[in-house]
Amino acid sequence: MNGPVVCGIDDSSTPLEAVWAARELADRYELPLLYVHVLDGDGGDERAGIALREAGLAEDAELVIEHGHPADRLVALAEERNASFLVVSNHGPRSSLLGSISADVARRAPCPVLVVPPTMRTTGEAIDTTMEGVTGR
Fold first, then answer.
1. CA 91, CA 111: separation in Å to the nearest integer?
2. Which residues contact 53 (CB under 8 A, 6 or more apart)?
3. Total structural domains in the chain?
4. Averaged confidence pLDDT in the chain
């Protein structure tokens, strides 16, 4: 396991818990961190990049701006980069159910996926629970 932790972010509506969970995974397993913002349509790259950097993302992480459908681009980038983990948030109206993007990513991803609910208490708790399922420890 040496590919990056890929974290899908969608500007200010992404719960900070997803960003923190991705950072925790990257730090815990000494993996590179890649934030991905997918724009639906052309243009807006510069404005999106500035807004995302101002959101306080880790300075040592890579930020990629893609164009297309979010689930398609996240899965494709995870495959291209040989991702170790893919982190997405679940911030739909009913947080007890997976949203369409997070469900689609979870079904098709080539690596373990951590879907972070907006009500997550602690990042470490979520990481520990997830890794028990992945590693059996």
1. 21
2. 63
3. 1
4. 79
Q: Who has greater pLDDT, 71 or 125?
A: 71
Range of the domain at 13: 5-135
- Assign residue 93 the CATH number of its domain: 3.40.50.620
> Which one, of 120, 69, 109, lies nearest residue 87 by Cα?
109
Which stretches of the chain are assigned E, i.e. beta strand? 5-9, 33-39, 62-67, 85-89, 113-116
Residues 12-66 pLDDT 10s:
555 677 888 898 999 999 999 999 988 877 666 666 666 566 556 667 888 888 8
Query: 41: which 2 tokens?
Result: 């349509």
The pTM assigned to this predicted structure is 0.79
CB 35, CB 52: distance < 8 Å: yes
